[in-house]
């Protein structure tokens, strides 16, 4: 088996509050607004720069830096002139990128083959395999969640009064934190399968 670390690559890096305030001010001035009438004053921008005013790291609130995948297999085979057997079992566990832990996948599978020579002219073979997988998904797919992240304003807090139980109203109404939490909607899918073949060769 193996343990594998996974990381998102080539994802756009979200700007902080200082970058947002600076670019927004330049945009407003270029659109004809007087510098003194811009949304952010020079003093505001300086306070964002030095950290006096907070900056919300929206992606850091919901995304892991790394996630993992576990794969493990065990097989046994052997036999004699009269009987041969092979059995394998497998397990896979994959954690999604959201910090809530509510995007994940688990799979269990097995396979067994037994061949027996009953007489010189009769051979019987039994093949069975099975699969069980559980997939937990959020009600909102990843496209909506990433879109919500790109909409967020880093100059506003994620929570009212710094209380994580109360979410600030955000642009478009898509607050990134509850979108990644199964308490606000989820999908669970379970697949089960079993196959068996009995074959006799005369």
Summarize the helices and strands and which ones pair or pack:
Layout: E1 2-6, H1 17-30, H2 42-50, H3 58-62, E2 67-79, E3 83-95, E4 104-117, E5 123-138, H4 142-151, H5 176-179, E6 186-201
Antiparallel strand pairs: 1-2, 2-3, 3-4, 4-5, 5-6
Please tell me about this protein's structure.
The protein is α+β, with helices and mostly antiparallel strands and 202 residues long. A 6-stranded antiparallel beta sheet has the order 1-2-3-4-5-6, with no helix packed on it. A hairpin with a 5-residue loop joins β4 and β5. The model has no long low-confidence stretch (mean pLDDT 91).
What string, H for helix and E for strand, traces the elements in order? EHHHEEEEHHE
Helix content: 10-25%
Task: Please tell me what the overall shape is.
Answer: rod-shaped
Order of strands across the biggest sheet? Answer: 1-2-3-4-5-6
The major pleated sheet works out as:
6 strands, antiparallel
Q: How many strand elements?
A: 6
- What is the structural class? alpha+beta
Rounded radius of gyration (Å): 28 Å
- For the residues shown, what is the average pLDDT? 91
* Uncertain ranges: none
Number of helices: 5
């Amino acid at each position: 088996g193996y343990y594998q670390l996974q990381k998102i690559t080539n994802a756009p890096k979200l700007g902080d509050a200082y970058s947002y305030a600076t670019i927004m001010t330049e945009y407003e001035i270029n659109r004809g607004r007087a510098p003194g009438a811009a949304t952010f004053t020079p003093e505001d921008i300086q306070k964002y720069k030095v950290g006096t005013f907070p900056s919300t790291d929206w992606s850091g609130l919901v995304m892991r830096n790394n996630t993992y995948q576990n794969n493990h297999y065990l097989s046994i085979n052997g036999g004699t002139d009269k009987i041969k057997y092979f059995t394998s079992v497998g397990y896979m566990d994959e954690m999604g990128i959201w910090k809530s832990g509510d995007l994940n996948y688990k799979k269990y599978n097995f396979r067994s083959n037994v061949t027996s020579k009953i007489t010189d002219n009769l051979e019987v073979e039994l093949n069975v395999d099975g699969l069980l997988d559980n997939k937990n998904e959020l009600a909102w797919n990843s496209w909506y969640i990433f879109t919500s992240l790109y909409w967020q304003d880093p100059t506003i807090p994620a929570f009212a009064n710094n209380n994580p139980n109360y979410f600030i109203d955000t642009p478009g109404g898509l607050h990134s934190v509850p979108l990644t939490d199964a308490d606000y909607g989820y999908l669970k899918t379970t697949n089960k399968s079993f196959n068996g073949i009995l074959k006799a060769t005369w």
